[in-house]
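ok new one. same drill as before - structure tokens go in, u give me an amino acid for every spot. 209 of them this time. try not to just spam alanines like last time pls lmao
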């Protein structure tokens, strides 16, 4: 799948993680005023979300968190505060086995997470609502080819309720950070984190990027 084409054609994939051979991308989108008024900022061990305009932040519980943190030589990337849980446990699976989907009925937004290891291998996980219970899926990769990556998002597109991502992470043709940022729906995109060979860039709509 061509990732840029997919993003151009999909108005609302929600939050997304892409892991490639030499890069990791994570973006957030928003439909509510609260979700849209955020920016990514750097921290000592990764990034966090912050309110661009605190007066428009109604409930920070599900939208203010650390999406990216280092854990030894590993890089942990998630769409919520489960990043902190993984780091606290020091173990990707053990940490995520204590968590479940977000409590935002009727969407029951899944928690998506990834961990990238120094040897190029990585894992991707999704915790999703399944008939009142949590289905925890883990996908392990020994690595991927140059120019390719694996993509997972919270939703398959727009809707009410929002349709949860289904199936395995999708193999995609990778693109440069600027191409990803330009491809995200301009009305709904909020911020993008990119890490290419250790070089981090942040794109924030509210800061004019």
């Amino acid at each position: 799948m061509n990732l840029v084409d997919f993003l151009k054609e999909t108005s609302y994939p929600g939050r997304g993680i892409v892991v490639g051979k030499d890069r990791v991308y994570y973006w957030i989108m928003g439909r509510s005023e609260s979700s849209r008024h955020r920016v990514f900022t750097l921290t000592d061990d990764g990034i966090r979300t912050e309110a661009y305009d605190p007066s428009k932040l109604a409930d920070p519980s599900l939208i203010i968190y650390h999406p990216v943190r280092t854990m030894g030589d590993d890089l942990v990337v998630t769409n919520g505060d489960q990043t902190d849980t993984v780091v606290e446990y020091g173990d990707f699976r053990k940490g995520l086995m204590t968590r479940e989907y977000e409590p935002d009925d009727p969407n029951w937004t899944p928690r998506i997470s990834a961990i990238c290891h120094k040897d190029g291998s990585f894992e991707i996980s999704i915790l999703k609502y399944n008939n009142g219970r949590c289905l925890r899926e883990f996908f392990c990769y020994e690595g991927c080819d140059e120019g390719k990556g694996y993509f997972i998002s919270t939703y398959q597109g727009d809707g009410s309720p929002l349709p949860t991502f289904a199936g395995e992470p999708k193999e995609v043709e990778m693109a440069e950070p600027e191409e990803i940022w330009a491809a995200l729906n301009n009305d709904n995109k909020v911020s993008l984190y990119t890490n290419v060979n250790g070089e981090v860039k942040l794109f924030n709509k509210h800061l004019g990027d």
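DSSP finds five helices and 13 strands in the chain. and btw The longest helix spans residues 82-89.
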